[in-house]
């Protein structure tokens, strides 16, 4: 019976003994709990190398109680599954060190079984979100992120990047990174080709990244929004680059300023008892925005916002 449970859980450690299987409420969820003991026979000391018995037949390595651990496994029949595992402790009488029995299915000081990690790695190859994987495997999102980062060591080292003469940079909300809500994107301003996407927009990380590129001094123009942090990049990393504020962001700020002005004007007219004009300002907002954009572009040097009276009357 015990071997059947071990086969079902795909556990092959011969020193693992299943003692009981029960249903318990764990973190307010009905959970399948397996009580087990891991007790391999005593072996030579890992620190001083002493044998279990010395030359006189005196016992050197002795059993020293059990350490209780709680290991999370993959769910079984839609029920969360945990193993309450008692690990045998050992003591060396020669060097007075203690150690705990370990098995292949869980790493020392870890509480998530290797089976769950393998499942997370398999799911990471699919087009699903980190939060979905975390929910599906009943672990936290930082756990999934940590496992993803641990795979970095298996990736081949990337060659150093060549930067284009015109470098466009911006940020976007991506949720891929646990360290920053916004990711960073940079592209070639002449061809529109993507250069790279970074998981964070923090200036220190960006500076390190661009300094490791082959030719930061060859960048002639840095096209950016009005984020002051990126202005620092030109000083620190791109000494020959001129800073250009992207037209998209200029128009976006102009639109916002115009809408603020329109709403302010509506409130002023309502306060003065005028009912017709605010209604026209509201219903013609799209047309006013178009005209406002053209006139603001024409008058931008004078700093004048212009609304034609013909629309309002
Ligand atoms: Zn020892």
UniProtKB/TrEMBL annotation:
- Occurrences of domain Transposase IS204/IS1001/IS1096/IS1165 DDE (ranges): 167-293
Write down the InterPro entries for this protein, in alphabetical order: Transpos_ISL3, Transposase_DDE
Pfam families given in the database record = DDE_Tnp_ISL3
Q: Name the domain of life this protein comes from.
A: Bacteria
**Designated name of the protein:** Transposase IS204/IS1001/IS1096/IS1165 DDE domain-containing protein
- What species does this protein belong to? Candidatus Enterococcus mangumiae
């Amino acid at each position: 019976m015990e071997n059947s449970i071990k086969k079902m859980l795909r556990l092959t450690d011969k020193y693992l003994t299943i003692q009981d299987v029960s249903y318990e409420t764990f973190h307010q969820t009905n959970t399948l709990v397996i009580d087990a003991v891991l007790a391999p026979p005593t072996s030579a000391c890992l620190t001083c190398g002493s044998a279990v018995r010395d030359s006189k037949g005196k016992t050197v390595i002795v059993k020293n109680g059990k350490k209780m651990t709680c290991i999370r496994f993959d769910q079984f029949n839609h029920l969360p599954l945990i193993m309450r595992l008692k690990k045998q402790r050992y003591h060396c009488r020669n060097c007075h060190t203690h150690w705990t029995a370990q098995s292949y299915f869980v790493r020392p000081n870890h509480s998530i079984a290797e089976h769950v990690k393998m499942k997370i790695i398999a799911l990471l190859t699919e087009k699903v979100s980190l939060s979905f994987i975390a929910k599906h495997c009943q672990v936290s999102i930082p756990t999934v992120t940590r496992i993803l980062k641990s795979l970095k060591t298996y990736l081949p080292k990337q060659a150093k990047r060549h930067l284009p003469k015109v470098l466009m940079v911006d940020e976007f909300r991506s949720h891929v990174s646990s360290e920053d809500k916004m990711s960073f994107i940079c592209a070639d301003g002449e061809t529109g080709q993507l250069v790279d996407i970074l998981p964070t927009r923090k200036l220190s990380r960006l500076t390190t990244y661009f300094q490791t590129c082959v030719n930061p001094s060859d960048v002639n123009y840095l096209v950016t929004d009005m984020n002051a942090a990126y202005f620092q990049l030109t000083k620190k990393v791109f000494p020959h680059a001129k800073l250009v504020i992207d037209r998209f962001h200029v128009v976006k700020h102009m639109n916002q300023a115009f809408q603020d002005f329109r709403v302010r004007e509506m409130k002023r007219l309502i306060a003065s008892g005028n009912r017709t004009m605010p209604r026209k300002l509201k219903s013609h907002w799209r047309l006013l925005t178009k005209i406002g954009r053209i006139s603001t572009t024409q008058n931008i040097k004078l700093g004048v916002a212009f609304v034609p009276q013909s629309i309002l009357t």
